[in-house]
Amino acid sequence: MGFRYAGREVPREVVLRDEVLRDVNLHVPSGGVLGVLGRSGSGKSTLLHLLAGVLPDGAGSVLLDAQPLSAAQRRGRGGFVPQKPGLLPWRTVLDNLLLPLELKGERTPAAEGHALNTLERFGLGGAAHRWPHQLSGGMAQRVAVLRATLHSPRLLLLDEPFSALDALTRREFQDWLAELHAELRPTTVLVTHDVREALTLCGQVVVLSGHPATVTLRRENIPGPHLNADLETELLRALRPEVVH
Ligand SMILES: Nc1ncnc2c1ncn2[C@@H]1O[C@H](COP(=O)(O)OP(=O)(O)OP(=O)(O)O)[C@@H](O)[C@H]1O
Ligand SMILES: [Mg+2]
């Protein structure tokens, strides 16, 4: 797939780089986790927004269960978690969780029960009736992930969900996410620029780089959370700043 931002107005002396992605071909096996690594500005969020149907279709297509879906059809099919949790401050955790269903007119007592069970099951039972400002950063991100999985249990799109957290909270959140994935097995695309995080959580990783960005490194069958020093070095090398001529 490829993607070009349309109608971007820039001063004439700025080099126009509106083509962000070119020839990016990815396949995530059902229930798998794909890590997308890339330096800042490489097009990771653009890719995720395309998958989520937030951006209009570029060149190429997106298939879900071998079915091509237009951007409009994709919107609402994937549970998207942005970099900041994006909880509405005037709604409790439970009400934030139920918002996507409410917007679809599907908030029922059964759905509320399911949301409460999910909070309980993933360690947030006590937070259901709290306000977002009463949550720690890590808790708020967990709520955002649960909201996405409730809304879309099969496809989870995570845009650097750990980036605003301190190192310890980050590790806890990673463990929590690994457990959630083991239980619910959503097909997941995780955007990150942390190599170790990708190696801990993902079964396969790709590195995006260049202008426009393409996949410059692709590794599958990543053995799991234990450290793979050679692969880590290889990925770090692929993420080195590009030489600008
Ligand atoms: N709405 C937009 N209109 C025009 N250009 C955009 C828009 N959003 C992003 N871009 C450009 O597209 C390129 C890729 O941006 P993107 O946000 O996808 O990068 P990223 O890899 O997610 O970066 P980061 O790691 O900093 O989040 C950048 O050059 C950016 O300036
Ligand atoms: Mg981004």
Automatic annotation (TrEMBL):
Keyword Chaperone carried by entry: no
Domain ABC transporter: 5-235
Entries under InterPro entries matching the protein: AAA+_ATPase (IPR003593), ABC_transporter-like_ATP-bd (IPR003439), ABC_transporter-like_CS (IPR017871), ABC_transporter_ATP-bind (IPR050166), P-loop_NTPase (IPR027417)
Protein name: ABC transporter ATP-binding protein
SUPFAM superfamilies reported for this sequence: P-loop containing nucleoside triphosphate hydrolases
GO molecular function terms listed in the Swiss-Prot or TrEMBL record: ATP binding
Pfam families: ABC_tran
UniProt KW keywords: ATP-binding, Nucleotide-binding, Transport
